[in-house]
Amino acid sequence: MKAFWVLTKLQLLQAYSLNPLIQGKKWGKLLGFGVLGLYLIGIFAFVVYFFAEGIVRAFAALGALEAFPPLIAALVCVSTLVFSIYRASTMLFSARELEITLAMPVRLSAIVASRVMGLYLANLPFALMVTIPAIVPYIRAAQPGALFYPIFVVCTLAAPLVPVVLAAIVGALVAFASSRFRAAKYVNMLLLVAVSLGAMYFSFTINANPEAMASLDLGAVGETLSRAISRIYPLSELYARAVARGDALAFLGYVGVSALVFAAFAFALGRVFLPVCTSIHSQRRSARRYQLGAMKRSGVLKTLMLREWRHLTAVPMWIFNSLFGLLLALIGGVLLLINKNAVLAFMAQEFAPQLGVDLPLGAMLSMVLSWLVSMSCLTGCTISLEGRTLWQLKSLPVSGRDVFAAKVLLNLLLCAPVSLAVGVLAGVAVGVSGALDWLWLLLTPCAYLVLIVLVGLLGNIRWHRYDWTNETVVIKQSLGAMLPVLVSMLTTLPVVYFLAVAEDANALMGAITLALVAIDLFLAALLRKKAGRWYASL
């Protein structure tokens, strides 16, 4: 048991990159990261509370307040499943870490149990960040009794158990299937994207029909919503009865089923762990004969961009994590062409009730696109991912200005054309006619993109790390990867509110766009001026 807890602790310290700070006694950095983490959690909690408040008011007006807790449970389930699929196989079946761990004098069962528990504990903070802010409006509206709180706490702790098991199974199957192919990493990435989009599509399409609900009496609306939610997350019915009604049997059933599924998975995985790892990591792939071709000459900048492109394509998780927002933007643009009424109705339902006003359509589309595009930042971890090969780059007879320019330009060349294409699709679909509306729809997202790319690179120059043993740590959990996300949220979400209360949306969008362009030019000039010194200090 002691070995299990020690291994779990080590896995969590490595997952959150805390071990170097603690062992190096860098208390200042540790405190700074803690303050930044609390700030990020606060921003996320505010956004969750903002949307939950509107949903609770809508459910209360329909007399379906009891349907809100299972909705939160379903949201946690789907979110945990989507965001855990592509890291579950890495955390459970990582070959490099497994070789080190197997050399330790510990039992295999302790290793497997610690990895499964580490995966659960890594997802638990997200579940808490969603459920705690979301349940506050419900408590204010429903005013439940004292028994509600201990039941809610236990059910919240049990909520990620089943999704984590599903994510681990799907991740293992995807890794096993993709290992049969020569380009295993690319096949793995495509399969994970398909599974994630399928889960999101399933969760968004299985819902109550508003027209059918309008014809029902208020007493039947809650039942209709509960049935719709239970189709997304079958255990949500037990969750609703336990949390909203205080049903002891439902509470025991929900917690018992979740714990039993989790324990059964851990036990079964322990029996087949080594064969599964061997099967995933030792598949034979057909080798290609290397043939020396004609030598090609290119300019310095083009050569560095090609090098960065090969580096990018060698790390599929980097592509998946950084460009997922761009993929959603492209899908949204296509959906607008196919069924614009449904997409616009969804936007009106999600944003207008919380702000209490009608939002300007052109500006709103521009800000939604800006938010999705600004989430596509490759430069946030590009320096850190150089890792132990950085010396090879620094040994080349090139300047730091060219190296940084290649990283920025590659990000812009990949994202800017997609942003413009989605802007055109969205504008044509909704019938944007004004010249200013077209300007905001095309220029503002690109200005946001340049800002995020420059901020990501500058942040990674300042906060880089080369001591990683798993790419997931750098891509998903490093400060350089989180900084662009934070800046994106802080610069896009407040604009939605100001658009709602502004008398002249065009004037506001013009001021924001000009400010973005000015900041972009300043950051580009700063990077150009300091590139040599910063590159030498890496």
Automatic annotation (TrEMBL):
This is ABC-2 type transport system permease protein. It comes from Candidatus Ornithocaccomicrobium faecavium. Keywords: Membrane, Transmembrane, Transmembrane helix. The chain crosses the membrane at residues 30-52, 58-86, 117-139, 151-177, 189-208, 251-274, 315-339, 359-387, 408-432, 438-458, 479-501, 507-527.
